[in-house]
Amino acid sequence: MAVSISVVLLLLIIAVIYIRNGALKISHALICILLGFFLASSSMAPTLHQGLAETAQIVSGLHP
């Protein structure tokens, strides 16, 4: 759950920066949001979730 919230916050911050700089329009952001909802309800959702969780585990294991 913490990984999901962190990713959502990171993507939200990036989206806000893009919208403020004019690189991302509101309509484009809405399309991306809809795509996310459709992906979450598709049969690919468990695979995407597992890949994201494994990537987070790898990144958290890195020691600079």
UniProtKB/TrEMBL annotation:
Keywords: Membrane, Transmembrane, Transmembrane helix. The chain crosses the membrane at residues 25-45. This is DUF2304 domain-containing protein. The lineage of its organism: Bacteria, Bacillati, Actinomycetota, Actinomycetes, Kitasatosporales.
